[in-house]
Write a structure and sequence with these properties.
alpha/beta, D-Maltodextrin-Binding Protein, domain 2, 2 domains, about 40% helix
Amino acid sequence: MELTLGFSPCPNDTFIFDALIHGKIATEGLSFKVFYDDVETLNQKALAGELDITKLSFHAFAYVAAQYALLNAGSALGFGVGPLLICKKENAERIENQLKTGDWELKIGIPGKYTTANFLLGVAYPQLTNKQEMVFSEIEAALLNNAIDLGLIIHENRFTYEAKGLHKVIDLGAYWEEFSGCAIPLGGIVVNRKLPIEIQEKVNRLVRKSVEFAFENPKSGLEFIRQHAQAMDEEVMYKHIELYVNNYSVDLGTEGRKAIDTLFDIAAKKKIIPPIGQSLYVI
């Protein structure tokens, strides 16, 4: 049985899925047609119900929970892994003063409407609504070119922004941790509810086995990870993996589920997302 599978070309995703799609673990009769897309494209595909299995932002998951169920394996949660709101270093004093005085006309580049990063921005700064959606990898250049005032960065950009002359205004991950006391739920792996429950559970097992294989053989997928990581050097690739792939990626457990449930509860109360009427999880 062939299933469609979407994930990003970022090192954390290629690290997780390498064993699954390259025959390094037994796949119990399943095969996978893979689509590599940036996170917001994956969010849009989920909203359209295009894929059997996909990575998506937890913010986007709120809008498709009736069609997709969350796997216990493969998620990106953690402490100190959140998005950063940044600006050009030479504009830092002006920008921070504008925020303090309530100047909400500042133009912000965001990596997508349905990203968890944008959700956290809405919790911290609900008045900042002048947003421009762009591919996450283009945000730093837009800041340097003065096309935007603030940039919301995710993924490996948190390792590169300072060297490019950019300044951190706020770590939204740290803000969330202090606000909620929970890990930050960034992205998860979901499976289409139209599939038989035994297939959904099988997919959950296989993703877990793929993550476990990656942890046991961390260099096994190096060439595959490098192939999709563009110009990123190996040190940055593995920093990225270390940041976003952890015990929660093997199994959410009680604490992981608590973090996700808290995120959804707060978001629903603030009317950032619609109420959820069913269980979020496969099992």
